[in-house]
Amino acid sequence: MRGYVANNLIPGERVEYETTYHWVIFLSFRAIFTLFIAPIMDRYTDEFAITNKRVVIKTGLISRKTVELNLNKIESVNVDQTIMGRIFGFGNITIIGIGGTHEFFLNIRKPLEFRRKFQELC
Questions:
Q1: What percent of the chain has pLDDT over 70?
Q2: What angle (nearest 5°) sits at the alpha carbon of residue 104, between those of residues 99 and 110?
Q3: Which alpha helices (DSSP H) does 8-108 contain, by range?
Q4: Buried b (16+ CB within 10 A) or exposed e, 22-46
Q5: What are the pLDDT digits (tens) for 6-18?
């Protein structure tokens, strides 16, 4: 468990599942043009966690974006995987909340496991 999630747990809350970006983020023009610094920073500063009460996602180092949705306020977690994503175990997740919230995250490691853990807790 890393910084943001660990520091923002409420009493009685525990982390059930954590993931990060897949190594495929290192195979992009962005990675090459930044000498692999950008994907390294993304991988070690962004957090994706499911607790027994909510989904907590934090992205960014200097400029921070957080998504914290209670499990009962999430309508669905959608997974999109290409053929390469299925072979290598990465994909995109979209979290759809009640009220029309759509949060989209690319190149997540083991997205089906993320969705399965969410479904187990609901």
A1: 98
A2: 120
A3: 29-33, 37-45, 83-88
A4: bebbbeeeebeeeeeebbeebbebb
A5: 999 999 999 999 9
What CATH topology corresponds to 3-121? Answer: PH-domain like (2.30.29)
Q: Which helix (H) or strand (E) holds 111?
A: helix 111-121
Pick the closest to residue 122 from 34, 53, 67, 45 (CA basis). Answer: 53
Q: What does the alpha-carbon distance between residue 119 and residue 122 come to, in Å, rounded to a whole number?
A: 5
Closest by alpha carbon to 117, among 21, 1, 19?
19
Give dist(CA 7, CA 101) in Å, integer: 25
Integer angstrom CA distances of residue 74 from 24, 43, 50, 101, 122: 28, 25, 12, 9, 9
Closest CA to 114 of 76, 60, 73: 76
pTM of this prediction?
0.89
Reported in sequence order, the residue ranges of 1-122 that DSSP labels E, i.e. its strands, are: 15-19, 47-51, 54-59, 65-70, 74-80, 90-97, 102-109
